[in-house]
Each structure stands twice: as C-alpha cells, then as structure tokens.
Amino acid sequence: MTPINQLRLIGSFMQTTWLPKFTSRLEFESWQAKRINIFLRTQLKNSSFYRDFIGHPLDQLPIVDKSVMLKNFTAMNVEGISLDAATNVALKNEANRDFALKLDGITVGLSSGTSGSRGVFLTTEKENAKWAGIVIARALPCFFLPQLLRGSKPIKIAFFLRANSDLYMALQSKRIDFRFFDLFIGVEAHLANLETYDPDFLVAPAHVLSAIASAALVGRIRIKPQRVISVAEVLEVDDKVRIEKAFCVMVHQLYQCTEGFLGYTCEHGVMHLNEEYVHVEPEWLDKEKTRFIPIITDFTRTTQHVIRYRLNDVLRVRQAPCACGRVSRALDAIEGRCDDVLWFASTASGEYCPLYPDMLRHALTSAAAVIPDFRIEQNADTLCIAVADQTPQSLCEVEMAIRTLLSRHGLKAPKFKVIPFSANESIAKRRRIVCNQRPANILALAAIKPSNARH
Ligand SMILES: [Zn+2]
C-alpha cells in the first residue's frame, strides 16, 4: 500500500472510531442526509447511468438490482470498464488462486453467486484503504487498540474464504498480519498451519468456524483466538453455541457483501447496520415492520456506484434498543436470501404465504431431539428433508416440528419427502433452507406486497 493510502486507512480508522456520538436517530438522519446530498451532488455526474438524475434527491433515483447492475455495468462505473473485461480478470484470479491481478489498477471481485449470475465489484486502492480503516475500527475490540497503536507485535488475523481479494489484502500492514486460508483446498488441510499461526482473530464463514470449533473441542487443534468473526453466510444457532463453547468468546458477525460493508456486531453482541457509510432503505415485508429487504446506497464508493440497490437478503429488525447506545438500526438476524423464503397455502383462504427461513430454523433448533445438521428444500408443493445421522425418530421430530410451525401460522402442511444428507463442501456457501422451486404462480418475494405477507 502506498504511503498516501496508508494515511487514508489511518484517517478512515480514526474517523470511524471517533465518529460523533448521536443522541437521537433524528440527529443521525440529518447528519447522514447531508453526506448523501454531497455524494449525489459530486458523484452522479461521473457515471452515464445517473447523469439524467443530477439534482434529484435519493428517493427519486431508480431502484436497481443485480440484473440491472450487470446489464448497465459500464454505465454504472466511472471508469467505463466493461463487464466482460472485469469478469475476465476476476475469473483469471480465481483460476490462479492469486487474486493480485488488477484491471488498470482497479481491484475486481466476484460475489459467490450461489445461484443465478455472479455479482462483479470494482474498487480502487484508495477505496480499499478506506474500507480497511472502517472494517478495522468496526471489528477491533478496544483492548487491541494499545497493541495496534504501539505496533509492538502485529495482530494476527486468520481469514478463511473461498476467494481472496486485493480488497481484503488492504488489511495487511506492519501492525496487522493478515493471512488468507484458501477454502478451495478445504478446512482440514489448514488445521496444522492454523495451530502454528495461532491467530488473534479467526474470520470465516459460519460452517467453517463450526468445523474448526469441532476440531478444537476434541483436541485436534489448539488455538485461542480472542475474536471470532462469522462472515458470508447465516450464523446458525447450533454453530454459534459450538464456536462459543470451543473458544470461550462471543461470535461476532461482519455483514459484508459484494455491494458493500453493511453491518457489524457491537460490543453487546447485537448486529448494527453500518449506516454511517451506507444508507439502508427498508422495503418492508409485513405491516408490523419486522422484516425487510434492504435497498442500499453506499455513499463512500465512487468508482462503481451502488445507489438504491436492492439486495437479495431478508433482515429481521431488533425491536428493543441496544444497550450500546448506537442509533444505527439494529438487527435480530440476517435471515438469508429472499429466494430461500418458503411458501405454503393458507388453511383458510388457500392463498400462498411466505414462511421465513429463520422461523423454520428456530422451530427445528428448539425441537425436542438434537438435530446435528439438516437441509430443507422446497420443490413446489413438496418439502424435502435431509438429516445428518438420521434415525426414524430424528426424521419424525423434524417433520413434527415443521407441521407444528405451519399449523401455528394457519398454513397447510405440504408433502414430505426424505432425501439423503450430504455434508457441505468447505468452498460452498452453506444454505440449510433452500427454495428450489416455488409453488406454481408464486412471485418472487420482492413482488409481494406487505399486506399479503404473514409474520
Ligand atoms: Zn449495540
């Protein structure tokens, strides 16, 4: 990293650490609105997609999604980079497992693309440095601050992911020893090296953390990370319990995706949206405003514009204020992808209603039998169930838990089918609850009006 970008990183770290303390949500929103206005005033003119919207307030700009972004890729970045050129560089990086190749000095990354088309993101070194400063400030517990400032010994971060990126490598410095563990070769292959490295921070997708925790619990690896951070997929309750038992620390989460750094866990263990840098507009899924699809505007990114971008996630709002005193919106859960909401017919009207993955997760984890691992897949009107180490009793417990849940919500039980269980590969993003095929005539969740949705 160049000296100027190192200064940017430090500046961004300090700005995030010592952000003004807001006494009310209203005061924060007014502060945020000023920053968004400056962003729109200075940035819209730079990309041809938004030039017609110069002078318009944020809520008059079009809502876009991944398909719009990919279709208008060149027009939505200020460098005029084509989707083909960016994808080629990203695919070369993936194939070489090197991730250092850039496109005219710009970092190109791919989203995991669990289904459908992959997202492609572009960032400059300046943006990477700024991002690194924000992430360090959000993820670093205050007891690490003296070590970071003194620089007496570097803070060791072990980072497991399916692909590295120059964006993540921006964290590497004299004071932070950032080591990438490539999930391409699995978790097992890394255990010995991980033990030797003995990280202060362990960062990985939840199912990988869980696998490392299982190895630690039986004494196959001895590490003492002081912070454990789950990224890239839903943190399941059973994994959380296992990880916390193995490492005796609270599991934190970073809600980071291709489109931006969206959330982090505070010192009280509550997920907060990173609203000081990303505006999050909720598209409510129910009248009671308990769940929403986030429409995000990242007002720090200037190379590729992420403005009123609808994500494919369902977030559940935390109703009680967080004891930390932050005024940013707090979440109870990132429930998963919109596409993985399941659909069942109402007993009363026959109309199909959504059932959110988190409801199902909760029903199964609070079932009488201990279920080691499971998959639920909806294929139209059939619900396929797979249970690890299955027995007739565990299958029966799962089916009963689902029937009870559906009955409580006034929904008809579907046909059940038992399918073989296969363990998740390390490199694949784990999705325990999947809707492969919605029942006939059911639209995507984003097209459902709140009045039709149950909670
Ligand atoms: Zn908090």
Backbone structural class: alpha/beta
Largest sheet: 12 strands, mixed
Overall mean pLDDT stands at 88
List cofactors, ions and other ligands.
zinc ion
CATH architecture type of the domain at 341-452:
2-Layer Sandwich
The unreliable regions are: 449-455
Number of strands: 20
State the separation between the terminal residues, measured CA to CA: 48 Å
Under CATH, the topology of the domain at 341-452 can be stated as GMP Synthetase, Chain A, domain 3
Q: Rg from C-alpha positions? A: 22 Å
Strand residue content = 15-25%
The helical percent reads 25-40%
Main features:
Rossmann fold; binds zinc ion; 12-stranded mixed sheet; 4-stranded mixed sheet; disordered C terminus; 455 residues
Give a short synopsis of this structure:
This protein is 30% helix and 24% strand. It has 455 residues and is of the alpha/beta class.
